[in-house]
Design a protein that fits this description.
Keywords: Signal. By secondary structure, this protein is mainly beta. 7% of the residues lie in helices and 33% in strands. The chain folds into 2 domains: 187 residues, no CATH class; 190 residues, Cathepsin D, subunit A, domain 1 (Beta Barrel). The protein contains 6 helices and 27 strands. Strand 9 and strand 10 form a beta hairpin.
Amino acid sequence: MRTQHIAVKFKGWMQAVAALALVSALVACGGGGGSSNDSSTTLNGGSLPASPVQQPIAATAANTVPITVGKGVSGVVNIPTVSVTVCAPGSTSNCQTISNIQVDTGSFGLRVVASALNGSLLNALPAGTIGGAQLAECATFADGFTWGTVRTATIAIGSERTTAAIPMQIIGDKDASTVPTSGCGSGSPQNTVSDLGANGILGIGNSPTDCGGICANAATAANYSNYFACPGGASCTRTPVPLAQQVANPVASFPTDNNGVIVQMPPVPDTGAPSATGTLVFGIGTQSNNALTGVQVFTTDAFGDLNNSVFNGTTVQAFLDSGSNGYFFTDSSITLCGSNFSGFYCPSSAQTRSVTLVGLNNSRASASIGILSAATLFGNGNNYAFNDLAGQIGSSSSFDLGLPFFYGRHVYYGLDQTAKGGEAPFVAF
């Protein structure tokens, strides 16, 4: 079992230009749709809040695929995965289905580790260029970065398929010597399956592209773009990139069911489970199985953040991120683990904390989360699904609701369609 701290995906470069903090914390929510147990649970002399108990629908419809949490490719806890098919542009035969792709609602676009692709397909994916130079991307996380080229491919997830080839990132296909010395974030490179904990990342959050106007506008791209022009494949420097060439959220390019997703995960015991199987549903209000009913809707900024939320009397930026494997927030009253589980919380008794989530539409809900010692949870080396795993991310200005928030809930993500005169981005549960 690997228990590394997996924090927020793709936040730093997006929010820097708006002077918003990167780090985030986690929240389990009691408001909105979905029923809960009638009483709290007592563990280790403390109590956990009642857990939500919604079950996922069967992943049998054309707009659904199963989500699996388990040991995966490298034994990292709380990694939800699906299978994704990548095809060379214009081809229906030069394709490969890749399993163990992490479902990440905190990022946008598909990223696949180069070693997970066969050579024939990898060589057939056209490399992006900008001004005649090779186009590469440094996608920064809170705990590291991925580095690799931008290429185009047709993407299929279950029965849903993009209408044309779209930009994606190939992780780790460029030599480490080409990583820019500045502008590529901090932390360790996550360019291998082992480092990433998955074969790739499927970013299906609220934005149709992974950087938007920040990277398209030359004035902001000069300091904040995560894209780099690499003449001859080296000497990479920051560059603005038009929206059409940015790594794209595949859902936005489906012919139907393209306005959002629903992540549905089953409830798990408070002490964890060996595995969990949920359902990823494409589209919101487009089929009989994805109606927006019985839930509370929170409109967000362009990247899915609830910037006016409140924790411990402080305004925080909260977001619902299936790509984080725990609740991550700052609370000095909770004991941190030792070096064995660095970054996670290890309280001597079960803890409950509450955060108030606030949408741009002024929708509000008080969310209660449970925290059990990571040392207790990881004591059973056969468990990989946890609903009360939490850790510190180093700032009091953010609150990251990671995968523990999703167990027993149906969580909706409405894509930002304002550029086309459509709906504003939202989350709902």
